[in-house]
Design goal:
- There is one protein chain.
- By secondary structure, this protein is α+β, with helices and mostly antiparallel strands.
- It has two domains: 120 residues, no CATH class; 71 residues, no CATH class.
- 40% of the residues lie in helices and 20% in strands.
- It is built from seven helices and six strands; from the N terminus they run ααβββαααβαβαβ.
- The protein has a three-stranded antiparallel β-sheet with strand order 1-2-3, with no helix packed on it.
- α3 crosses α5.
- The longest helix has 19 residues.
- It is extended, with a radius of gyration of 24 Å.
- The structure holds zinc ion.
- Zinc ion (ZN) binds next to loops.
């Protein structure tokens, strides 16, 4: 979702909360005490009450927002920042954008969103045509490798190895799924393969 569309769809706390509630109800609410699935909504308390045993479940209970005191629109803003843009944002920047006083709850919120995104990625199985190759990524070596690299540089007149196997890079196995699509796509992009998810 583009940033502009985001603010049209979610302009305030009420719109975020209403969306959250409707998404939650699509999944269904199960009573923790008796397992019953039919509930009343108590709007004054933001709670569901089991029609069978009267046990109450809060709107946030059992979700990513469980136990959070932050407003819904913070969470929606955080999710948009992490998924709707190609850049990555620091917790400090999100805190600044939201104008929130404390850093720690914002950091924690983003951490939970990232964790949930990672978990969802883990559960994703690549399909269609899957291609496998190695990629090279520039990395910052950890302590152990720093010592090894320093030694190697000394033995090689301070020069890094070139190309594959260079100390500046780490080899990463990359798997990508792709689909063969219609010819007009090829005309536009020079290939008739469209890449989907990637695992590294
Ligand atoms: Zn119940």
């Amino acid at each position: 979702m583009k940033i502009r569309d985001f603010f049209t769809k979610f302009p305030d706390e009420a719109s975020c909360k209403a969306h959250f509630k409707s998404e939650r109800e699509k999944q269904g609410i199960v009573c923790k005490r008796c397992g019953h699935e039919k509930h009343y909504w108590i709007s004054t308390r933001d709670q569901y009450q089991c029609k069978e045993c009267k046990y109450r479940t809060t709107l946030k209970s059992g979700t990513l927002l469980h136990g959070s005191q932050l407003p819904y629109h913070y969470w929606y803003f955080g999710m948009m920042m992490l998924t709707g843009t190609k850049k990555s944002f620091s917790a400090l920047e999100v805190q600044r954008q939201l104008g929130h006083r404390y850093y720690e709850p914002i950091w924690y919120m983003l951490h939970k969103i990232r964790y949930a995104m990672g978990k969802r990625d883990d559960g994703y199985k690549l399909c269609d045509e899957v291609e496998l190759d190695e990629g090279f990524f520039e990395t910052v070596p950890d302590k152990e490798n720093r010592d090894r690299i320093a030694k190697e540089l000394k033995e090689n007149d301070g020069k890094y190895k070139r190309g594959k196997g260079s100390q500046k890079q780490t080899t990463v196995l990359v798997m990508a799924e792709s689909k063969t699509v219609e010819a007009s796509y090829k005309y536009r992009y020079g290939t008739n393969k469209k890449v989907g998810h990637i695992k590294m």
